[in-house]
Amino acid sequence: MRSRSPADDDGSVAAEFAVALPAVALVLALCVGAVGVGSQQLRLQDAAADAARGLGRGESTSAVQGRVSRAAPGSVLADWSSGELVCARLTVPARGPAAVAGLRLAAESCALDGGR
């Protein structure tokens, strides 16, 4: 039986690296995409809270929609009243790699209805 020498393993590290590199790149891309979606969701939630407060102060829906469009471009505003509260719901398609999957983000917030 022939004994193995260190020279028998030449190239195995390069082959393992070539196999692992695409998987590492994919995981890294997914992580970056998730951070982007999280950031977009946070901005959308802030815009929904601002919209609810504006509607609660008695601002017109068109004025609130204009402000929301600057904060969260492409978002759609829906508003309704529930007792002493006025609520706003924003929806928007996700940007970046999540857009390929058809992901839609939504955020809603309510404020006291003091202006209606």
UniProtKB/TrEMBL annotation:
Pfam families per UniProt: TadE
InterPro entries xrefs: Rv3655c/TadE (IPR049790), TadE-like_dom (IPR012495)
Residue ranges crossing the lipid bilayer per the database entry: 12-37
Keywords: Membrane, Transmembrane, Transmembrane helix
Domain TadE-like positions: 11-53
Protein name listed in UniProt: TadE-like domain-containing protein
Organism: Homoserinibacter gongjuensis
